[in-house]
Amino acid sequence: MSKSSLPSRAKIVIIGGGVGGTSVAFHLAELGEKDVILLDRNELTSGSTFHSAGLVGQLRADPTLTKMNMHSVDLYRRLQKTETPPSWRECGSIKLATTPERMEEIRRQIGWARTFNLDLKEISPKEAQELFPLMDLEGVLGASYLASDGQVDPSQLAMAMAAGARAGGVQIFTHTRVLSIQTEKGRVKSVTTDKGVIECEVIVNCGGMYAPSIARMVDVRVPIVPMSHQYLITDNFMDPSAPLLPSLRDPDSLIYFRQEVQGLLMGGYERNSKAWSADHQNFDDIPANFNNQLLGEDWDRFEEIAVNSQRRVPKMSEIGVKSFINGPEGFTPDNEFCLGESEVGGFFVAAGFCAHGIAGAGGIGKVVAEWVVAGEPTMDLWHMDIKRFGASYRSPDFTLKRISENYEAYYDIHYPGEERQSARPGKKSPAYEWHAANTAVFGEKSSWERVNYYANHESDDKLKPHGWAGKHWSSAVAAEHRATRENAGLFDESSFAKAIVSGTQAPEFLNWVCANDVVKGVGRTIYTQALNTRGGIESDYTVTQTSDTEFLIITGTAFSTHDFGWLEKQMREGGFNDVTIKVVTEELGCFALMGPKARTILAKTTEYDLSHANFPFMHSRELNIAGTKVRATRLTYVGELGWEIYVPVADGKKVWEALIAAGTDEGLMPCGYRAIESLRLEKGYRAWAGEINTETTPYEAGLGFAISKKKDKFIGKDALSSAKPTRKLVAMTFDDIRQVPLGNEPVRINGSVVGRVKSGGQGYTINKAIGYAYLPTEHTAPGTRVDVEFFGTWATGVICEEPLFDPENSKIRL
Ligand SMILES: Cc1cc2nc3c(=O)[nH]c(=O)nc-3n(C[C@H](O)[C@H](O)[C@H](O)COP(=O)(O)OP(=O)(O)OC[C@H]3O[C@@H](n4cnc5c(N)ncnc54)[C@H](O)[C@@H]3O)c2cc1C
């Protein structure tokens, strides 16, 4: 297994020989990359992989992840036919519902599985029992069944992928420990191991729960914590000639089962989670000799799961336990993988598989290998991108609190609008105390406390959506929406991510990265996308030119690391040496004053001439409000006349109060983020990670107006020029405003499924429910009737001309 002499250079070095590392190696080899080395400090599979339960389920809460897991199944089937089969057994899987809400979840999943051609079907309790006769049906309301799910031997799987990688030219060195990593000019340069140094261009950290310590070698933060995860295996008791049982998940009881030889393997997610060594400071360092090892049995924590398992499968109380496994596994703060290139050029991570790494490994290896080769993700991987983790995750304490909360809610149903509860309150706006004193109901984004709505604006539940969309709904949102349309709303958007890009090359650099022409003179504000080489939207933001060589970029709260990281990467790789990017998010508050009376209200606080002639749309000025110098930018994300006002944090509260006071007689209402969502959906303004992402081009998304026709070159231009869109984002409306799409529902035209919903909400001005979906261009004509499946029932809507509100923009350019 282990080769003797370590090469002194390789193009790509993979660290870690579990299912993650071997799959990345396998897929790199499939892509034709031959100059690849895989290193493991011990034997292959000696981390989490060897003690895995080996269940492979494909359906996940996210479409991309589901597609990845479907690739895993295809691959495992394929490997089963090779000389190193991984013991892939396609036994199917059952998921039980014991509450009406779980049944709704199942029906919703069946709906969107349809959009992938994944054959998930609803079965009756009796049919479930026929498939898994050991089960007691107490409390079971229904179930789903997916015949193509299965189980695999995790170690054999890693060995099979390693064999495939070797056959493709990858060299594997076990008992070779990475001790340090060297960088040069922000990129990886070499890896130092206990067997020698390897110069390289790319490193892929597939260290599983060891990934944080490997990443520390280049000062990259990987927020993963090893959590104890347990299962047991019973004595054999089943008839060896009987067909293999399907896997069984009973999420309401926190448990899962699969057949193991002639016994059962049973595990679950405890309500009292336990990090392996949580001292809240240094808990992700793993002992140097921890390989091929397990943790001590923790029966006390497992008791609830054991009791639940006996209720569901009575036989569990009669048969003996052959072995009990307590193994550590790397979990992330949101139960999604941690993938992609970090802020250090060429340093990739593929780790934190949160107890679904065996199911995910095939897909993970594919997307990460493609990402390494292309230098950018080849599909929308935002939910798994390491860059989704903001600065707060540098704190071990914050990270652990978030991970524990998530682990314990692993099997819970997550409703739209649900908020995280742990490690709050985090970052606060300068006007936070005012909000708190005025009945604000806060949400959280990237550890910022933000106003969702103000409870004192609540009235009745007439418009409360049916089903899940109504779970975290408030009537206050409609009131705030209407106040903004009729008079004015004041929104605290201080959490916006903000950066100053400066330097003599800043204009040239930004016009290379941005698809729009963003260099139009001091005081101009431009809405733009930054594209990848495939023409997909990497970022979506505004750029304000503040001097000949300085620009202010404003992007979404959660996108700081991602968007500014993308800029850093293009700067480094494009050789723009005289450009500096400085993140100023926490130096500036931001208040958005929006609505027909915005000018009247703002004029009461400043001497500045706010007339349209002196202060046109998409312009930015410095002016004084309540004695404080602020930057006011005339733009809107809600479809109304308005300004975003950037204010030094120290004076934020004073300026907020001055604006509130100025609006008292004008019907001004303080408003929250939920109202922004409703207003922007009505106006058709896109949200990155909502309707647009790295997989969608501006032309598909109806953003062609933001592409510069003048510029000879910018990243993505070639791809945009050569591709003819075959799908288009459309707005659909539903007459019943309470029938609100959540996202991922299948869309059917003339009886055929043609797409799935991207986003949805309520439009309180047009008095309809709204949904957006990408559909094949031939199906996008306004007036086309569409059927959308809501929890198993089809409802009819119609494709509408965009925007749904104020198509002439008459409200904005006043
Ligand atoms: C009890 C339990 C049950 C599970 N059940 C399931 C299941 O049913 N289905 C499912 O899909 N998933 C399951 N999982 C999760 C799955 O096992 C893991 O997600 C997966 O094995 C992780 O693989 P990996 O390659 O990321 O990490 P690992 O397997 O941990 O591999 C990391 C490797 O990196 C090496 N390494 C570390 N540091 C260095 C260094 N400095 N130099 C060189 N090498 C280094 C280690 O030696 C190790 O081999 C389970 C996990 C546990 C703990």
Description of the structure:
- With 814 residues, the chain is of the alpha+beta class.
- The chain contains 17 helices and 38 strands.
- The strands form 8 sheets. An 8-stranded mixed beta sheet has the order 5-6-4-14-15-16-13-17.
- The longest helix is centred in the N-terminal third of the chain and has 18 residues, at 63-80.
- It starts with 11 loop residues before the first strand and ends in a 14-residue tail after the last strand.
Please tag this protein with its features:
alpha+beta; eight-stranded mixed beta sheet; 28% strand; 38 strands; binds flavin-adenine dinucleotide; six-stranded mixed beta sheet; 814 residues
Class by SSE composition: alpha+beta
Q: Can you give the mean pLDDT?
A: 96
Ligands in the structure? flavin-adenine dinucleotide
Can you list the strand order of the major beta sheet?
5-6-4-14-15-16-13-17
Task: Give the distance, in angstroms, between the N- and C-terminal Cα atoms.
Answer: 73 Å
Give the low-confidence spans. Answer: none
Proportion of helical residues: 10-25%
Shape: globular
The oligomerization state is: single chain
**Alpha plus pi helix count:** 17
Q: How many extended strands?
A: 38
Major β-sheet annotation: 8 strands, mixed
Estimated share of beta-strand residues: 25-35%
Gyration radius over CA: 27 Å
